[in-house]
Fold:
Amino acid sequence: MLEISSHSQFRIGICISMIILLLGVVSIYTIKTMDDINQNYNFILEYNQNISNFDDIKIKYERQMTIFESLKSEENLAGVGTFWIYNTEIKNKIYDFNTLIINNPQFVELLEDKKSLELENNIDSYYNLHLNYENSASDALSYFYDGDFGLFLLEYENLKHLQFELFEKLEDIEQTLEIIPVYSKISVEHIIADFQILQWTMIILVGVVTTMLVFFLNQTNSNLKSEIKMQTKNLQKLNEQLKTVDKKREEFISIASHELKGPIQPIFGFVELAKTGIISNQEALEGISNIALNLENIANNVLDLTKIENDELELHLEKNSINELISEVLDSEHFNPDRKVPIITRLDVDVVMNLDRTRIKQVLRNILDNCIKFTETGTITIQTNLLKDKKTLKLFITDSGPEIPHDVLPKIFKKFVTKGNYKVSGFGLGLYISKNIVDAHKGKISAYNKNGHPVFEISLPIISFDLTWKDSESSNLEKNIEYN
Structure:
């Protein structure tokens, strides 16, 4: 490399230092700006979510009053447990919103002191009013159980009056909060405007300094240019690597936070139903156990995703009865609170296969859960067929729900498939992981529509197997799990 004069080195060093300094200032301010915008965006998201909860709270109040209407007509008590489930959900939403107010200083910043104080007073007043409503409902039920129908009707009228006041108080809170999105938008616009001014200023300064640097660099030898170019490429490559790592990290955090928000609320529902005697303690425990199993399955899916991405998915192969395996999965779905239709099985002759029992059960649960989500009426059917060559076992899972949209079918076994035409949307990790598990077993999995309904088809190769026959069984076995 040719020598560079100390004067040129000094000038180049000054220019580079200035560029790095300016870029550092821009980077720091960019991070701060994006953080401010992100905080504002998250705040508005949380705000909108809690505001939308008000409509849900009103609906639950109306459903509670419908339950008391049935008691007024001296109908059965089947809805009393549901009343307290609704009450628990309402209190949780009230608590979440109150936490949002307390933990977010942005409310104080966006609202005037008078409005902020008015909001806090309205929330406190609403909460105390709800406690009175809850006590009134409890007194009314006590009168009903004691057979004092006159006092029950009086308390019922008081309950309706309290509900009307609760609705008015909710309206007051919503009116106070209407100004927040407007102020928040103004705040974001100011942040972006300040950032654009700084951005243009830095662009001009960087342009001037860069022009000077180019002039000085042209006075140096070609070896120095080549070295700078090589180092620049290395920095760009490292930056891309860091972006890739950061993207994977954000992707994993996003998946985990979304998928692990499990159905906790039904647990309280089972507890309340057991307390009121609508179901037995054993049934409640079985239902809670099933929810815990679903949560475990979700956690396993998230962890399995990491293993699949890193090519670390392992199978523990052993001999297993395919019919017994399917039966165990169906038993675990017996008390699934989301299931609204019966599950019917049509199983061919039992085959003992060499496979990973836990993983195949995970595949079946993932597909069944998917069917349960979208099936409101009809049935879900599991069918197995041993092909004549006895080298392949076909497993079909169908339901009477809506067919899979044609734009979703080609990518249904990929990550992050959204099901916009359905009532439920999500990342679709279950089907993505299921395909990888089946592929690891040297099998195939596909999805298609038949007669307007979805069909999931799994083909598993039979390398080593035994056929299990019983005189009392035919080759077409049926099991029916009814909806309770």
Remarks:
- The beta strands are 318-321, 343-347, 350-355, 380-386, 392-399, 444-450, 453-461, 466-468, 477-481.
- Residues 81 and 346 are 37 Å apart (CA to CA).
